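Re: your question about DUF4331 domain-containing protein

S., sorry for the slow reply, the queue was backed up all week. Below is exactly what I fed in.
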Amino acid sequence: MVGALALVALTGAPNRAADHFDPPARTDPTVDQTPDLPADIADVYAWHANGMVNLSVTFAGPNVNTAPAFYDRNVLYKVLISTAPPDDTPEVAIRVRFGAGTRANEFGVRFEGLPGVNGTLEGPVETNLTKDGVTARAGLFDDPFTFDLVGFRQIRPTGQVRFNNTRDFFDNQNDTGFVISIPQSRIANGTGTVRIWSTTSRIGGQI
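Result:
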């Protein structure tokens, strides 16, 4: 499954966010429509601040805020970065996988391919993990997307704008996801525009 695309101008131009509930059948009717929450990407966000490039991938949501996180050791997440858009060949390929711990309902996460990091960055979920100047965290997050679904549904039959900024369908709902902060200088030398996207796939083997 291919997730959303984000364009980030490291010099400060606006960024673009993704869309929730974008079913695969919209673009490929041959895709199996059976729900696969751990592999279902909700959004990809990318932004830079204070010399860091921040990457966020959310999936398996939105769910009510009492629902648990969705970790699947057989799903491989990739964050791909092209430093020379519109070329879609990624010069950076970050791989993320989850694994079960020794206790019930205990999970860990492993990040591979992080720019400037020697080896892997790994540890328990719901924990800030830091190595070689990179910080990452995986776990449950409040859904960062804001959208008036009621207003959208009212627009469709009439064509009249009925959005209300006090209504947020995603309020008090959670996603599972991960966030990575990388020094800006390690991506395209810290300048120019980069293209960032994410994919998921089911693979064999466990960690």
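The longest strand covers residues 52-64. The chain is about 5% helix and 45% strand.

Happy to talk it through on Thursday.
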